[in-house]
Amino acid sequence: MEESSDCDSNSSTKKPLSLWPGSYHSPVTVALSEMKSRTFERIAAPSLDEPPQTVLLTRTPSESRMTIIYNFSSDFTLREQYRDPWNEVRIGKLLEDLDALAGTISVKHCSDDDYTTRPLYLVTASVDKMVLKKPISVDLDLSISGALTWVGRSSMEIQLDVTQPPTQSAEATDSVALTATFIFVARDYKTLKSAPVNRLTPETEREKSLYEAAEARNKLRKSTIKGDKKEIENRGMNSVEALLSEGRIFCDMPALADRDSILLRETRLENSLICHPQQRNIHGRIFGGFLMHRAFELAFSTAYAFAGMMPSFLEVDYVDFLRPVDVGDFLRLKSCVLYTESESSDQPLIHVEVVAHVTRPEFRSTEVSNRFYFTFTIRAEAKAKNNGSRIRKVVPATEEEARRIIERMDAASVDLYAS
User: Fold this and answer.
1) Whose CB has fewer CB within 10 Å in the chain, the N or C terminal residue?
2) Pairing state of beta strands 199-200 and 261-263?
3) Residues in domain HotDog ACOT-type (predicted)?
4) Where is average pLDDT lowest: 214-218, 220-224, 326-330?
5) Phi and psi, residue 300, nearest 5°
6) Which helix (H) or strand (E) holds 324?
7) Is-contact 95 293, C-beta < 8 A?
8) DSSP-derived secondary structure letter, 78
């Protein structure tokens, strides 16, 4: 029987997942994993004695396209698993599913259908952008669909769309609730060096347009990295001094400091955890979606404590996966509000940074594994109850804090231009 590319997340006909006992899975990741069980078995237990893939195939976006359906309207158990306090879908759990789907799509594209070669080791390199376009109700059916939009030598861009039928008051075409772009990279399972992936040939006009846009974004980022470093440093020093001028007043003359501002260090929160086997992926390392989920929860709490009003998620600006996180690692998540934008009283913006550190007390070492950047605003009902409340300006107290703010502002401006 031919396997369908559509998958029902709460299908009762599927057998329980048994390929990787103890590995992290949700109803969606179970469904995804069982779709291509033979392919996933090879990835879960690769033979390093097998030769690498030598012949690159040419595939189309439609060959990797997948759709996941959430029957929230008819499945009470599934609905309760994803319900948040405001009767909307939990964004943190959705992040897990988006990462799982993007990973499965990359596996489908990179598979050479030759079971005598060793599979590639595919990892999430970054989340380029994730934008919430409208609230996602937990009472209406939901679908996530995605496919490859661009391929480099060893990297791939996957675009995902979360869609939900519009309400009666919305436009008929207003069905896309969230869009996300993931970047995956391929490595050789034996050498862990970058490995070439199958080529991608777009067919439809939309696929060609998405491919060209992704190619332009890739070139823009490379040109930005290779830009005039001296010019960037000079501009950065001027901005650093401007930001630090107000921070110095807080440090040297706190009684005279602006009460509508707050030091960055006063917005910090922190969370620590031990990474357990239940959160591992098919490669045996901690599932990237789990890390995003935990980072989102901390970022949300940080925005809530900072604003004094219930925040509302808008965007994942960027996520960087710098190093893998292993089972048993002691992970520390540290968050802060980097900066705010309150020019618009209707939608003030709160930009939150979360940095994940893998800490090894026995070696007296700590290493950054991930950087997450989120944007929140204030929920409309919370703003109505607190009429007149203002979002405070965040100022740095050190040069290092000022540079982090400037770097993120510059990156956001590049993202805006690229989009």
Assistant:
1) N
2) unpaired
3) 68-190, 265-382
4) 220-224
5) -60, -45
6) none
7) yes
8) H
From the CB of residue 207, how many other CB atoms can be counted at a distance below 10 Å?
A: 19
Instruction: Encode pLDDT of 255-286 as tens digits.
Output: 888 888 999 999 999 999 999 988 888 788 89
DSSP letters for 379-399: -HHHHHHTTT--PPEEE-SSH
Burial string for 174-204 (b: 16+ CB within 10 Å, else e) reads ebebbbbbbbbbbebbbeeeebbbbebebee
Q: What is the pLDDT of residues 57-90, one digit of tens each?
A: 999 999 999 999 999 999 998 899 999 998 999 9
Residue 139 has pLDDT above 90, yes or no: yes
Name residue, tokens 């034996």.
190
* Selection from 360, 335, 354, 333 nearest residue 271 by Cα: 333
The model's confidence at residue 372, banded by pLDDT at 50, 70 and 90, is very high
Distance CA 123, CA 116 (A): 22
For residue 368 the two structure tokens come to 């950054």
In Å, what is the CA distance from 261 to each residue of 254, 256, 412?
11, 11, 22
DSSP-derived letter for residue 17 is: P
- Closest-CA residue to 215 (of 115, 288, 143, 148): 148
> Which tokens in the block code for residue 282?
């098919």
Backbone Cα Rg of the chain: 22
251-290 burial, b for 16+ CB within 10 Å, e for fewer? eeeeeebeeeebbbeebebebeeebeeebbbbbebbbbbb
Cα-to-chain-centroid distance, residue 140 = 24
Spatial contact of 46 and 186, defined as CB atoms under 8 Å apart: no
| CA separation for the pair 9, 122 (Å, rounded) | 23
If you write DSSP's letter for every residue of 134-202 in order, what string do you get? S--BSSS-EEEEEEEEEE-SSEEEEEEEEE-PPPTTS-TTTTEEEEEEEEEEEEETTT-SB----EE--
Tell me, what amino acid is at 59?
Answer: R
What six digits make up the tokens of 47?
């033979």
What are the tokens at 100?
């799982």
How far apart CA 94 and CA 367 sit, in angstroms, is 27
Whether pLDDT at 199 is above 50: yes
Cα 271 from Cα 63, distance rounded (Å):
41
pTM of the shown model: 0.87
